[in-house]
Every structure is written in C-alpha cells, then in structure tokens.
Amino acid sequence: MKTYMRNIALACCAAAFCTVSCSGPSGGRDADAGKKADELLARMTLREKIGQMNQVSGGYGLMDMAAKGEVGSILNCVDPVEINAVQKAAVEQSRLGIPLLVSRDVIHGFRTIFPIPLGQAATFDPAIVERGARVAAVEASASGIRWTFSPMLDVARDPRWGRVAEGSGEDPYLASLMGEAMVRGYQGDSLCSRSSIAACIKHFAGYGAAEGGRDYNSTMISERSLRNTYLPPFKACADAGAATLMTSFNEIDGVPSTGNRWLLKDILRDEWGWEGMVVTDWNSAGEMIAHGFSRDLEHSAEQALNAGVDMDMMSFGFISHMEKLVAEGRVSEDDIDRAVRNILKLKFELGLFDSPYVDVEASAAADYAPEHLEAAYQCALESAVLLKNEGSVLPLDNAGTVLVTGPLADAPYEQMGTWAFDGQKEHVVTPLAALRSRYDVIWEPGLEYSRDTDKSSFARVRAAAAKADAAIVFVGEEAILSGEAHSLSDLCMQGSQSELLRAVHESGKPVVAVVMAGRPLTIERDLENCDAMLYAFHPGTMGGPALADLISGKASPSGKLPMTMLRHAGQAPFYYNHNNTGRPCNGTETLLADIPVGAGQTSLGCTSYYLDTGYGPLFPFGYGLSYASFSYGKPELESFSLERDGILRASVRLENTGDMTATEVVQLYVQDIVGSVVRPVKELRRFERVTLAPGESRAVGFELPVSELAFWNAEMEHVVEPGDFRLWIAGDSASGEPVLFTVR
Ligand code: BGC
Question: Is 706 within a domain?
Fold first, then answer.
C-alpha cells in the first residue's frame, strides 16, 4: 500500500507540479507557484501540513522525520551527500514526496568569506555587496543550500551589541541599500535558477535596539521610531522581493516579535502586502515561555501561528501541539493553510520539485573560484577605513624592512569574523602572508591572541622594531568576541594589545595600526600610539592581499564608517541621526579637569554632554580618509522651492586635490528643520562612490524625490510636511555647509 501511494505521489508530482516556468510577470518567480501550492495543499492531511511548518536542524533524527513528512525544512546540513540522503527520504518515502527546503546561515560568504556585513557596509558600494551575495549563492547552492538567513537588517546604534557585526550599522538608508543589494545577489534573476538562494530578511523587528547592547534584551521602541527608523530596511527589502522573513528574539514594549500579530499581520501583510514566508528565529516561539508571554510550548505555538508565523525553527511546538490546537479550535485550519501555502509556494518558486537533489560531483567546483576571490578582495579593499594618517606615513611605499606584529596579523580563522561557518581558514590569505611578498618582513607576533596579556615577548618586538624601517601592528578582536550573544560592556582593545602598540611606538619608527574587529572599538588611546590607523573590520578570506595593497599604496582606502565611533562605551547609544535636545551642546562644555573645586551648580552651563568625554564622538558616521584629498564646492540646487511630488536635484563639484587616483564616497544629508514631531538633526539620503585622478574635478549630481522625505508624523501618517530643509553634500556626517530649500 505504501509503495503504491508513493508511486502515485511521484507520478502526481511529475505530472502536476514539476513544470517550472520562471518567466512569469513576478520578477523571475514561477508565476504558477501559488496555483501549484493550492493544488498540492488540497491533497494534504493536517499532519502533513504541520510537517511542512516544522524546520529542524541536522542532528535531530532528520531521516526518520523526513520519511514521515514531519519536516518541511532543514538547517545546518552542509554535506551534499547527507543533504541528498535526507532529501531522498522526503521525496521518495513520504506520501506526497514534497522536497525539503535546505537552509543555512550564509551571512557573508559560504566558502569564500567576504568582510563581515558591517565591513561591507563601510564600502558604501551596493554593487560589490551584491556581487558578494551572488558569490555566496553560487557556492552555497552548489552544496545544496537554497535558503540563507541573510541579510540582517537590524539598525544598530550600540557597539556593545555583538551583532552589530552582522548588519549595516546605524543608518536605515544605508541598511536598506545594502539589504536590497544582498537580496538581489542571493536571489539572482530568477529564484528557480539552481544557483539562486532565497533571502531571509531578519530579525523582524527592533532586535538591534537591545537595551544596554546586551543581546536578546528587551527593547522599548515607540511605534513612531519603529516606523521611522527600524522598519524602513525591512520595507525596502520586502519591496525588493525578499522571499522570506525571520521574526526576532526580542520583545518590543512587552510583546515578543514571534507572537506579535500587529507586526506580522497588520504591518507586514496588510499594510505592506508582502507575500513571502515567515520563519521564527531559533526556538524564538519556545522562548516566549521564558519571556513570560506563553504558558507552555503549546501556548507559544498557538500564539506564533495566530500572530502570522508560517514555519517554526527548532521549538518543535508546531509539530507537537498543532493538531490538538486545531481540534480545540484555538487555531484555525485556514491559518495553517496560509502558512503551508507560503512554504509550498516558495518550494515551487525555487524549482525544488523539479530538481530536489544536489550534484555531489560538482558541488565543490564553485568554491573559491578565481572570480569569487577577486570579488572578496575588492570588497575587503573597499571596506577598510583610514582613520588617521599623520605625516602621510601611509602608503608605506619606501619601506624596505617592516616589522609585522600583533595577534591578528596571521590569524586566518579570526580574520573571517563571526558567522563564517563554512569558510575554511586554510584558504584565508593573512596580511602576514601578503606583506611578505611586498616587503622584507620581520615577524614577531608579540601576543598570541587578542585577549592575551603575556608581555614576555615584547622585548623581542622592541628589538625587531629597532631594525625595521616601519612597523605594522595588527590588533583588534578575535572572531568570538562579536556576533550573536557576544556583547561587551568595555570596548577598549582586549588583553595587552594597547601596550603592544605603545611598545612599538616607543621605538620611534613609523607605526601603522590595522584593526580587525567585529564592531567599532573605543580606540582613542591607541590612536596616540600610531601614526596611521586602518580600520579593517574582519575582512574575510582575501583580507590579507587587500590590506597589503592598501598599505603599500597599490590602492587608496575608500571605506567610510557605517557606525559612529565612540570615545567611551559609556556614550552608547550614540548615532549621528539623533533628535536634538532643547539644550544642544554648543562647544563651550567644561570637562572634568577644568571644573573648579566648589563650582556652582549651574556654573558650567546646562547643555547635553558628558563631563568626562564631552559631547562628540571619536569619529562621525561616514568618516574615512584617503591617500588623496578631496575638496567639495558648495552644493547647488536646481530649485530651492519644491512641490511635494517634485524631485530635488542637487550637485556638488568634487576635486581630487591630492596626488593619487582615489575614490571618495560623496554623501548627501537632509534635515527637516521643523516637524509636527522632532526630526533627526541629519539623515543620509543619497551617496555615490566617485573616483578621480589627481587634479580631476567632477560635478556629482543627485536626484531625490521629495516623497522620500516623508516620515511618520504626529498623526502617525507617513507624509512629507511642508517647510524648510537643510541639505549637505560632504565626505562625512559632520562636515559641509548646509544649503536651505523649502517644500511647499
Ligand atoms: C540567530 C539567527 C540565525 C538562526 C539560525 C539564531 O540564533 O539569531 O540569526 O539565522 O540562529 O542559525
């Protein structure tokens, strides 16, 4: 009987469901996927439907579950042979032969590892980010993975939060553009191409606002700031066609996202009309019990489904309790059908019914292809931010002998950063290896790893520095210090790294510090102990050659900070696009050392700053130097008075006043001066990478539809309010002279 049913199922599959045409009007999707999903759905038992809604990790008895149709998607299986075996169980043994959706966290590359997403954001180059995601898709899909949990779109304004590494930093516009680029790269021209993988925009929503920067913590976000700041990247990527979305671990104002019907239904479905598939984060349904929102797993499954979740990642609440919940009328079969339809539709769109298996022979052929390494190199090259270059010590084009030191100079695993599960450190080219082909290198690690406090080899480092023309010190964070669950309250260099830098600096030789880290660290004191500093984040597989080329002057740095750099962790959260206080800092603040003993209560003036660190950041958002220098003219506007449906056209003359060809990221910011609710002091609205030869100048033009100046106002309507605006075009968020324009 079972064999008979199976044959029927296979025949049905072949006849009714397996013809994929990707050329429908839906942007490379199988236009009939919804219809096919409905037809299949009509033939499923309740138990089979619930099985599709269950996502299970490798190591949890997958074969048996797949054969019984009790799992719809698997994660964390990357061996193509194993993937095929589980897939075979699902396709050949389960009654309907529905293929599994194979998923994995491919966050910044699969084998070829690109810079961490925060580093990618520093490129301000959506094209290279899209290329990176395409490379990841090609490599991952060749191993049988057709769904990644990326991009992470959480706007993050607190560098204590370890997951700042995984996103694009503090700005919603930058996060939107980087996210859209990744969605395009992963999903390719058509989702059903075998080299496309479905994107998953995460974590919906507000996860980046964890109180105190401590991972998983509660967030207190008003509806207005959620809509103005945290949701726009999700909306942009939903509109860009992201196939799936993941709910977040956190609660907002008391409601965990996985049980938040307002977020998942009212906003995502009803307001945005998004039709993709919603998955929970790992056990985030079950964790609603610890939150104190669900009584038990059964209750959490009820709440998650009713809120709008389609697939349960690893709580097992759906598979264990959903039949009972239906029987008791606590969830409706209509909601289950909605969820299963979304899941099946995606499987049809991906062409899984036609080609469920991975070609094991060919699976590794895509890994580390030369063009993949080239793209990773280019991305690493563009992501490094030059923070200091006193006396133009960089590029080191005249040095013969250089001391290379520091725990990150030859740390291939650390260089890949967080969430690089499938990157292989054997393929990483470290800066030490790359620099050896350019200089006569003296290598003294100084410290074994970033938290190392053993200074016993510092004497050797000092002696080596004395013999070298210059020293390059690679410091920062090991990969484990950032990423999920890895928050820090102190953002200074770990271990004895600052002392190492000081020891090298005392040699009197030119010192270049290169920081590889998962977050913006507080490096003020380290800046004093180097002549130049390159901030490289964790640059990935090709970080070594990219950094060596920047150091030796083959290319000029062009990265810009995607997050404000703080003087002290106590300033967090601190971000450039904040609202103003009624008593903004006016530059006359008195710091601790200057406060007279017995000073009168109000004698310091009453403005908004810290007595110890002052007001400003160490470096503002958008900041980054170059080996060239750029001069900006005054921004010119085509019109100073615009209608609400008009288009703002602005331009600026940019000149390379240096003596090297280099790229500048030209940034356009706008402030809505008076609103029905307070508006940020500045917001990034456009940017462009511009490459100029020495002495070359160019007018850089931008178009900005006035409609993009809309915000959620006092009435919680998304509108452009007429009034006056300031506009800046500059090389970072703290520079430039504003020009005024008016919207009527
Ligand atoms: C993370 C997600 C990730 C998931 C699956 C969770 O712990 O928060 O970002 O995609 O695990 O590995």
Answer: yes
Please indicate whether residue 630, judged by its CB atom, sits closer than 6 Å to ligand 1: no
Does residue 382 contact residue 125 with C-beta atoms inside 8 Å?
A: yes
Whether 596 shows a pLDDT value over 50: the answer reads yes
Q: Is 207 in the pocket of ligand 1 (CB under 6 A)?
A: no
Residue 282 in contact with ligand 1 by CB distance below 6 A = yes
**Structure tokens given for 388:** 């200091």
Per residue in 204-222, pLDDT tens? Answer: 999 999 999 999 999 999 9
The string of pLDDT tens digits covering residues 278-289 is 999 999 999 999
Which tokens sit at 680? 């940020």
Residue 281 bears catalytic tag: yes
CATH of residue 691's domain is 2.60.40.10
Which 8-state DSSP code applies to residue 100? P
Q: Does the beta carbon of 104 sit less than 6 angstroms from any atom of ligand 1?
A: no
Contact 22, 355 (CB under 8 A): no
Going by alpha carbons, the residue nearest to atom 4 of ligand 1 is: 282
Which of 149, 418, 486 gets mutated to test ligand 1 (max ligand atoms within 8 A of its CB)? 149
Q: Which domain holds residue 637?
A: 630-743
Residue 526: how many CA atoms within 13 Å on its side-chain side?
29
The whole-model pTM stands at 0.96
320 lies in the same domain as 399: no
Q: How far apart are CA 178 and CA 129, in angstroms?
A: 7
Which residue, among 555, 131, 545, 197, has the nearest Cα to 351 in the 3D structure? 197
Domain end point (choices 329, 363, 397): 363
Query: Of the listed 125, 281, 549, 672, which one is catalytic?
Result: 281
Does 105 contact ligand 1 (Cβ within 6 A)?
yes
576 lies in some domain: no
Alpha-carbon gap, residue 431 to 513, rounded angstroms? 12
Ligand 1 centroid–CA 284 distance in Å is 10
User: Looking at the domain assignment, is residue 658 inside a domain?
Assistant: yes
- What would the pLDDT profile of 549-567 be if each residue is shown by its tens digit? 999 999 999 999 999 999 9
Q: In this structure, which residue's CA is closest to atom 2 in ligand 1?
A: 281
Phi, psi of 743, deg, nearest 5: -110, 125
pLDDT at residue 606, rounded to an integer: 93
Closest C-alpha to 39, from 70, 16, 10, 69: 16
- 31 and 148 in a single domain? The answer is yes
Residue with the larger pLDDT of the pair 9 and 147:
147
Query: How many angstroms separate the CA atoms of 539 and 523, rounded?
Result: 19
Q: Give the Å distance between the CA of 165 and the centre of ligand 1.
A: 14
Q: Say if 575 falls within a structural domain.
A: no
Mean pLDDT of 475-481: 98
Phi/psi of residue 138, each to 5°?
Answer: -65, -45
- Which residues, including other chains, have CB under 8 Å from residue 353's CB and lie 6 or more apart? 13, 17, 18, 20, 36, 98, 99, 347
Taking residues 53-82, what's their average pLDDT?
96
- Give strand ranges (E) for 521-635: 532-535, 630-632
